[in-house]
């Protein structure tokens, strides 16, 4: 079947001297894997090799899930080339692409997630954007879209109310990925698989929750770094494999 969809390039692999295998996130058809014959030729219908983060209108022929489709035409409308001038922003964009590729199944439509990554890349492209804060908010919203959101208002072990202002825990908070949230002091000793959370990270989670609710919030660089580290850890625990980009965003664990 032939489709015409808005699309964002998530991944490219050289197939030959003139062709690529390209993974796109489309708005209404989800992730598609396509053979892009001849796209590396300057006079191809794509205008040359397709790059990561490129956005545009994609025409493709789809086969069964798991089988590679065929790219017919890709008309780029946004290149995001400006991201390549800033290392932090480029890494942030690549992190977003990797997260989507790792958490969304092929052929599973996520129109809201398509809008999220479109807006996230556009925000990174803005001159005054902070890559660490943008990627933290992106991860927070992504988790909601893929069913992995975390609870920070109640203990995930006993359902006890933790109240607002988790940073008041002064470094005594813990997080459990399999349960999907924070653990209170009373339950901490009985939970084996837990990760200690810094006050800065807790304050960052509070700021994201406030921003999502439309309340004024300011996410500092330190808070955003802690949030990015925690949320990427959570995602990796659930997908069962390490991601490549988190260490380029937050540095080695514990740093």
Describe this structure in words.
There is one protein chain. This protein has 255 residues and is α+β, with helices and mostly antiparallel strands. It has 2 domains: 2-129, Beta Barrel (OB fold (Dihydrolipoamide Acetyltransferase, E2P)); 130-255, de novo design (two linked rop proteins), CATH 1.20.1440. Helices cover 35% and strands 21% of the residues. It is built from 7 helices and 8 strands, in the order βββββαααββαβααα. It has a 5-stranded mixed beta barrel. Strands 7-6-8 form a 3-stranded antiparallel beta sheet. Helix 1 runs parallel beside helix 3 and helix 2 runs antiparallel to helix 3. The N and C termini lie far apart (49 Å).
The CATH architecture of the largest domain is Beta Barrel
Query: What fold name stands as the CATH topology of the largest domain?
Result: OB fold (Dihydrolipoamide Acetyltransferase, E2P)
Order of helices and strands: EEEEEHHHEEHEHHH
In terms of quaternary structure, what is this?
single chain
| Contiguous helical run count | 7
The CATH fourth-level homologous superfamily of the largest domain:
Nucleic acid-binding proteins
**CATH top level assignment of the largest domain:** Mainly Beta
Instruction: Give the low-confidence spans.
Output: 164-171
Calculate Rg over CA atoms: 20 Å
Largest sheet: 5 strands, mixed, barrel
Task: Write out the strand line-up for the largest beta sheet, numbering strands in chain order.
Answer: 1-2-3-5-4
β-strand amount? 15-25%
- Give the total of beta strands: 8
* Secondary-structure-derived class: alpha+beta
Number of domains as seen in the coordinates: 2
